[in-house]
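Schema walk-through. Below, the input block comes first and the output block second. Nothing else is stored per chain. Lengths vary across the set, and this one has 259 residues.
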Amino acid sequence: MSRVLAQLAGNQMAGFILVLARVTPLFFLAPLFSSQMIPTRVRGLVAVAISIGLAPVALHGQRIPGDPLSLAGFTVEGLLVGFGFAFALAGLMAAVQSAGALADVLAGFSFGALIDPIDGNQGGVLLQFYSLLGTLIFLAIGGDAWVLRGLARTFQLVPLTSAPQISSLIGGAEHVFSGIFGAALEIAAPVVVALLITDVAFGVVSRVVPQLSVFAVGFPAKVAVALLVVGASLPFVGGWMSNEISTSVGAALGALHVA
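--- output ---
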């Protein structure tokens, strides 16, 4: 009886390690989970708690080999699955931040770059604003629940003792990376169009009234136009993220196949 209990305990511990390997990449790449505003120890405790909750689902009807070599191989495969899933979600936030960076360049805010409190990177005012806004929308629409449900689904698509198809993971990562700039243009399109029209208007004015200091008048005007358009386009950003979070989770799951 004691030998059976020891085997069960060993199987559960090995399964917990494999689940933790798949959960850990979320706290390096996924939005909100990887925020630098959350202390490292807290993120570690949350990762362990999530792994404990998902372990019974992931271990259902499976036996984990006890030898260290097999366990190490399954751990590496779990990390690959976790990074592939988290990278698709990271692309969503990268698109939002890229939109803010693009708006900063056009509005002139890039001259006063500050430190983004979410990920610690240097960026302008609008980049910080879009980053914080994206995180708030992510929480408001239940993005954390979407992520956890999607992560639980990965254990059905690629069980703990199965290897992921590497070519499919690479193809999914390429698709996410190639779509970041296009998604950023979708978000920043109202600001980009408004500022281009403003630049054209001041260019015409400078030709008609050469003695007017266009830089002294145009810079405050561009800032005002950028802030007004950003404020007016906030509902669009919220709707866009609501649609994209489910799309990103679906795309991440669609890239997972058993080798």
